[in-house]
């Protein structure tokens, strides 16, 4: 049964007569007996289809032929199994002048306008990912048929941009305007069924029914969904202005305009020009060209390439198909569930049955949020097997230990399971603090032992630190890195050192916030200023999120191992709170109190007393110790690549993406300026602000 289902899921793509056509450039083109042209985009130079100037120029040649030959109809689809198209190739804009960018966009608009103006019916058949410029290409067709696995979206906002090939014009005209705008403003992709409900696509079918759906599109059985009354109303500026005010308010609740201008420019464009397609088209090109020259967009494009570089650390396959996780606590349970969601067979063990049951319950909720498709959730849960007896250890290709941070306990676990491991199996620990050399000291074969440090929650935090030690085999590190990439996480190779990279850098940020709180600054003000800098969460709320007990343990351990001058001592009241089990969000009380919705109860900052003034050094006191720790890690060889360092901090801590990463931010601000500032803070607040010697070497 399993093989049959797999065969059905991998059904050959319906490509019409183009299946047998010889590729010509980026397309395969063939005409059937009814005069219908099938155009299959299948770029030979890339593993996925992207939209760039050469591809559009080739499309223009085919369109010119259609304008002359007048085929009965044109079908446009992808020959790549992964999807229709992944969007524009962002490389084409890097380093280009504003004039060149405008010229390229104008040419692209002209090509898609000609496609839209063809006198014959045009149909886009969409499967897999259809993003950005790929969706704009599909929107230029008369009809869109989505295969059930399709996912459509405009992710340009993630690069500090908005659509630039007519998406701002065509998406609101084809789909419900507010839904289309929301899609562009958030960058979130939309599954096929949802896309049909808002009018973005005209039909959703299984792959085996594509040919029939195409026929229906040509012979009138597939009609466009009429625009709603609300959609028609948006043709008038008063209605758009009202909706735009709501959009600005919601957007401002999530991002600041000075940090992320793109969504606000998109709202301006639509409000002003939404009733005039030609004016909107021109304004879209001008706005896109200005945004791509902004510091925000340059830094977010940098982050995009950082992500790609981290993905490229994968060399070959991991050889892992069966994962066994030991420890069904918060981390172990999420690691197991996430790996199952990515297609791995996972067995989950613990010394007690109850934690496994709770972990499966939490996994179900997490998978429902992450996968959204009940069938995918069911399949993932089928792959997640409770294993209280630990039978999976002997069959697993990788065993991850996620037990509490007690070295004696971990040694006991390793002694029990190492003899059971099959040949070639890897053993990993999810420790966030313990030295790997100490953990490996009792192993008979430490060469296959590695750190895989995930971050909580695993389903949302993209980073995995791949922690090496002196006895690790290069093949073990390679396979561990590949496994992280195979479960859609971003690997960062680090050496075993106190706190590794992320905890080493994040702890000073959190510890200094507690000092500020101890000095009398309101916790809401401290969090507000950090969020204004661009952090996703203020350090006080983050400490509650991590857990006061864990934060105290990590800070105390790092201070002991790195020296008293590296971190401030924890306030006495923090120890007392931990003793009283006021541990933060997980107990409902910590530095904040928490409501039933799990959100902290905060006093509005504008309601704070007049004497609750800022420490003028507040932002630098929070951020510069973090940068100092990052520089220390680079200087000490904990991590060796500046770009991977920036990526790890962005994807592991949420360090303000629009700033391009802490090292990039430091270079933009000026290393000499930062060193001078830290010396001033050290003179005022103590030696923990003394700049690390690595700053000088960073200038070399």
TrEMBL record:
Pfam families with a match to the protein in the record: 3HCDH, 3HCDH_N, ECH_1
E.C. number(s) listed in UniProt: 4.2.1.17
One Gene Ontology MF term: enoyl-CoA hydratase activity
Catalytic activity: a (3S)-3-hydroxyacyl-CoA + NAD(+) = a 3-oxoacyl-CoA + NADH + H(+)
3-hydroxyacyl-CoA dehydrogenase NAD binding domain location: 324-494
PROSITE patterns from the UniProt entry: 3HCDH (PS00067)
Pathway: Lipid metabolism; fatty acid beta-oxidation
3-hydroxyacyl-CoA dehydrogenase C-terminal domain sequence ranges: 499-594
Assigned protein family: In the N-terminal section; belongs to the enoyl-CoA hydratase/isomerase family. In the central section; belongs to the 3-hydroxyacyl-CoA dehydrogenase family.
Identification of the protein by name: enoyl-CoA hydratase
Organism of origin: Jiella flava
């Amino acid at each position: 049964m399993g093989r049959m289902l797999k065969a059905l899921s991998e059904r050959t793509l319906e490509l019409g007569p183009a299946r047998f056509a010889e590729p010509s450039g980026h397309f395969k083109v063939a005409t059937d007996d009814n005069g219908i042209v099938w155009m299959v985009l299948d770029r030979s130079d890339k593993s996925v289809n992207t939209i760039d100037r050469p591809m559009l120029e080739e499309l223009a040649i085919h369109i010119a032929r259609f304008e002359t030959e007048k085929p009965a109809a044109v079908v446009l689809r992808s020959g790549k199994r992964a999807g229709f198209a992944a969007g524009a190739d962002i490389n084409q804009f890097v380093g280009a002048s504003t004039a060149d960018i405008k010229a390229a966009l104008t040419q692209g608009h002209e090509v898609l306008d000609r496609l839209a103006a063809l006198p014959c019916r045009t149909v886009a058949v969409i499967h897999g990912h259809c993003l950005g410029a790929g969706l704009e290409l599909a929107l230029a067709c008369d009809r869109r048929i989505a295969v059930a696995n399709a996912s459509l979206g405009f992710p340009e906002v993630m690069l500090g941009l908005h659509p630039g090939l007519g998406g701002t014009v065509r998406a609101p005209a084809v789909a419900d305007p507010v839904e289309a705008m929301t899609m562009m403003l958030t960058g979130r992709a939309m599954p096929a069924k949802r896309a049909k409900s808002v009018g973005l696509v005209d039909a959703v079918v299984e792959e085996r029914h594509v040919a029939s759906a195409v026929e229906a599109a040509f012979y009138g059985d597939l009609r466009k969904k009429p625009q709603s009354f609300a959609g028609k109303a948006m043709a008038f500026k008063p209605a758009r202005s009202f909706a735009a005010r709501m959009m600005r308010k919601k957007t401002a609740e999530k991002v600041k305009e000075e940090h992320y201008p793109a969504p606000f420019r998109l709202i301006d464009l639509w409000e002003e020009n939404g009733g005039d397609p030609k004016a909107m088209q021109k304004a879209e090109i001008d706005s896109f060209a200005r945004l791509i020259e902004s510091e925000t967009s340059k830094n977010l494009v940098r982050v995009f390439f950082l992500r790609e570089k981290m993905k490229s650390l994968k060399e070959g396959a991991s050889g892992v198909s069966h994962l066994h996780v030991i420890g069904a606590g918060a981390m172990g349970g999420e690691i197991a569930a996430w790996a199952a969601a990515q297609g791995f067979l996972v067995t989950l063990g613990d010394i007690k049955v109850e934690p496994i049951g709770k972990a499966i319950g939490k996994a179900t909720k997490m998978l429902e949020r992450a996968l959204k498709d009940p069938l995918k959730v069911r399949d993932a849960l089928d792959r997640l097997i409770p294993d209280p007896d630990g039978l999976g250890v002997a069959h697993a290709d990788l065993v991850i230990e996620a037990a509490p941070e007690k070295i004696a306990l971990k040694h006991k676990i390793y002694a029990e399971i190492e003899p059971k491991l099959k040949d070639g199996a890897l053993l990993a620990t999810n420790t966030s603090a313990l030295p790997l050399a100490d953990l490996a000291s009792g192993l008979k074969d430490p060469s296959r032992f590695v750190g895989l440090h995930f971050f909580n929650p695993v389903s949302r935090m993209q980073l995995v630190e791949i922690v090496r030690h002196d006895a690790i085999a290069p093949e073990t590190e390679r396979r561990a890195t590949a496994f992280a990439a195979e479960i859609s996480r971003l690997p960062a190779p680090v050496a075993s050192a106190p706190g590794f990279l992320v905890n080493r850098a994040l702890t000073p940020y959190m510890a200094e916030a507690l000092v500020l709180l101890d000095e009398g600054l309101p916790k809401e003000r401290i969090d507000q200023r950090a969020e204004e800098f661009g952090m996703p969460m203020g350090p006080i709320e983050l400490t509650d999120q991590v857990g006061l007990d864990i934060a105290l343990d990590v800070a105390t351990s790092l201070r002991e191992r790195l020296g008293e001058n590296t971190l401030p001592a924890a306030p006495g009241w923090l120890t007392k709170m931990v003793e009283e089990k006021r541990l933060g969000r997980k107990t409902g009380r910590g530095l904040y109190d928490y409501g039933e919705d799990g959100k902290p109860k905060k006093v509005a900052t504008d309601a704070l007393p007049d004497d609750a003034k800022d420490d003028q050094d507040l932002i630098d006191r929070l951020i510069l110790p973090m940068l100092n720790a990052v520089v220390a890690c680079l200087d000490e060889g904990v991590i060796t690549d500046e770009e991977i360092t920036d990526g790890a901090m962005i994807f592991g801590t949420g360090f303000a993406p629009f700033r391009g990463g802490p090292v990039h931010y430091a270079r933009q601000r000026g290393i000499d300026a930062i060193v001078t500032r830290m010396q001033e803070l050290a003179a005022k607040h103590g030696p923990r602000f003394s700049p690390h010697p690595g700053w000088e070497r960073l200038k070399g």
